Protein 1
Amino acid sequence: GYQLDVNTEYLYFNGAVCNNWDEATDMEVRIFWELNAGGGGADDSVFFDLKSWYKGATEDTTKYQTSTEGELVNNDGQYTAYMITFTLDYDLVANVIQVGDVLSFRLNLNTASSDVDNVVLNYVYFSYKTKVPQPTTY
């Protein structure tokens, strides 16, 4: 896993949009993570920020999207596991995602909004719906 316990720590990863994408649905980034310190209160939460940059081979402008997602962890114990899904809007005005785009991602723990500031990321993946069934591996 990868520990995040400071707002300035980032996890970088990437993906690509192949020609099998259905070109009609949003894409997802899923993160599987766990608490590295137990929640202290009944309403404790954890928030992550995801920034994505992307462009195709012949484009001269880098497009981007930013989103924040959170999870209510209450007073759950250390090593309790969770999953959060970020959605990338494929037809966002002026930032449309297209076949052939290469994406770069930056994920960080939003410590300003989170009650628990110590997590471990176990797995991250980028996915989208395809025109025909594809084997899925996790």
Protein 2
Amino acid sequence: MVTMLWQFYLVWLLIGCCLAGCLYDPCFSYLTRTFQADAKNSIIMITLIAGFASTVSYPLCTLITDLYNWKITVYLLTVILCFIAAPLFWYGTSIQPASSQSLDKDSKISVMKTIKPALSSPVFWGLLTIFAAFSSNQGMIISQIFPLLESREISPGTTVLFASCIGPMQVIARLILFATESFGNKDIPIMAVCLTSLVCLCLSSLALVWGGTSLIIIVIFVIFQGGPYGLFSIVRPVITAEMLGRVNFGLLSSMVGIGSVWGAALAPGIAGSIADRWNYDAVLITTSSITAAGLIVLMVTSRLQKSNPFNIGPMK
């Protein structure tokens, strides 16, 4: 049906609008609003399951396309979205746990009374910068992962193997966090998770610079790069709720998430430019520096939040 370029862009614009309403951000906003301080476990569980989406979808779509054609694949995905995903969304959001009944309508605050304090708060800008550091690091690494690993003098086949392991590392890291908290019966502070993740991301890039062509160092790089970023999807909503509160959480989460969006959008172009002008060691030094800066901002933001907590109104 699409025969002109503007129609192609229009379709993708509509797809983007739909994605904005059904991916992690709105989902975690709903969970935080519904479960309040207990939302962390629900978020971890959802990311554990959702982490296998690409593992299932890529082979399935490839298989259907090879057997039939890409149009049949699109039709199949449409059926799955309309008759499986949408009803499950409807059913899931219709469940109201007992804890959500205690939410008071008086805790609702107007949009402007939320936006103004946020934009004037150093805690808000600190979180935005931290999230931008996470996304920039991952965006720069992933967009250049194949030439980056090939620059370490490993074969194309091994490069594909290592690159494909970054995704599973994200799921494994979430599983480790879930198992540690569940079986250890101990709630790990989200600040510690965020701090550890940034340190690992910083060290992963430096290890690849110093390690040269060592396969052991490359394995460490994949683990330290994939695992911490897998925890980022959990860190972002939880630390936002802890530092900015849960009043109008959806609005605050979307505002502070702009850092992630712009970081991910600009990262590939910046990484490619650095690689063309210098080399991939320069890319790695840049990614390490970005996460080191994010680490410093995290510590400063944590101190600011303790000395002058962000507050826009009554909390529940």
Protein 3
Amino acid sequence: NMPPSIYDITIGVADAGGPEPVGTNIAFTLDLRIVPNLVGIGTVTYCLNGTVGNCVSGELQTAEYIVIQINTGTASQNGFYIYDIGQSNFQTWANSCFGGNTISINYTGRQTSSSGNSISSCVPAYGTTLSAAKGVLENRNYSGQASYANTITPPSLSSYTFEIV
């Protein structure tokens, strides 16, 4: 495993039977980082039973969510990845799920279906559009009834790198 970074690589090739100098160097840059188009944190309001507007007292809940939009990956990786982080914040979520400053977006384990068990905070709901990704998370984690508030950008992402696994 190589951490997501920019690597300058030089490969030297030589003809063992040729006269001196026989070598050729080929240099290239390998960039393993993914740069998100958007990273935002928002609040979702949902009702444990019923719709948000007709919620019984005590059943109205709020949670935080993180949305990451990728449009610099391969075509199949591009889209919206949404994480339900409960009452957490970005830094606590990153440390808990990824152990530090490298956010590993789980493309292989992403959830694309609106049916199934709740999605953990370390696994993204995915959609090619924001509304599709929100729909997956809403149906899986918020009883199919949720109201999403606008997202804000986290205070500082400069110490974080992103990768898709």
Protein 4
Amino acid sequence: MPTSTPTPTLTLPQGTYAGGQHYGAEYFRGVPYAGGVQRFRPPTRLTVDPRPSPIDARQQGPTPIAPPSRLSMVMGADRDSGPQSEEHSAVLSVYRPPGAAALPIFFWIHGGAFVSGSSQSSFYDGSRLARDANAVVVAVNYRLGALGFLYDPDTRHQPRPAESFGTLDLVAALEWVASHAAALGGDSGNITAFGQSAGGFLCAELLVLRPQLVARAIIQSSTASVLASVDDALAIRALAATFLPSGATFDTMSPEQAIAVHSQTAGALPAHNLDFGLGMPFFPVLPPSAGPGGGRPNHNPDVPGASDPRRVPVFVTYTANDGDVFRRMASQAGLSDAEIDALPPTALRSNPGWAAASVDYAHFLRQRGHAVSLAEWVWRPAGSAFGAVHTIDVPLLLGTQEAWAGTPMLGSESWDEVDAKGKVVRQAWGAFARGVWPASIDGVLDVLEEATAK
């Protein structure tokens, strides 16, 4: 007689969650890490989940208010990222091997140009990484677009300009994970923050804002060496205000209006500011006092209030064709080839621009005393027209077979081939969480600079 698989449970002070199993790992989705979120306010501490335990954590939790991803041309459509909610999207998902105890923790921050994406998407399912890295994987939601990264010069509710509300959400989530690490099956002293694109940028922010909680970091295809200045942010705020409906303010606009304001601001941005953030109007911002040049172009300097000068190992990566998809976006936005070619060499519409941003940031971290290794993703799936495109690293690490089915950037590569290559990467990430630097992986990842500190 067949026996049923016991339901995995996650017991926390705030409540007990009933999860599921697949890919050899347990999963718990939509677990709150903060109380109800109020617009343009820091997240509040959650003491008790008001739902009766055990709470069903098998389905995707709510996702932040956001427009569709601009990267669907390469990633495909996101079919199942959960219902959108402004107030209740401060959730995360946990993936772990059965019987997990004191394992390394991966803290995943998704990309999406600070305006789209969700940890609840099956693109970011962490089960395969949890299984092959023998680690706990936590994927985190954070507020997006104007609701998460609109610059506000009024600091009554925003502790420091560097801490946008989207960033504050991540800080709260990281603190929650550290506080509940043992219950999650992990080690609070061994948290690896990792993220891709905007998520990599936000990992760099956490290295500054909460270094005492991050043991290591992996920053993939990030623009972390390029920051918006206060002047940029104020200009974009003024531009966005022109798209508010009559009588509405940023505080009173509906979620649907917030998405429309973002889309209209992004559409107006190329003419407003060609050399920075094409179609990406909302960014984390550092104040002029944080460094030379008012923050742009600049590196990620220490922000007043960072409580620990801890220097940690950082693995920085970019893809060989990171810039190609953004060049396509620039063309779709109406820029001619001549206008695109006239952009500065460091503009993020070119492959050299993306490479330069990653190399620049790796060298900066090394100068600051971090041990840093730099690598380039070179995997070009069979039959793909996109090559080693922006986000090509994600299916090697995260996501389900169903989520990635029919993804344009994977071309004709079979899932078995994708998963086999990815297993080597996932095992390398697990080794890095235990102190072993990743080595080159033939046809997938080339390590360009070995780990050294200045």
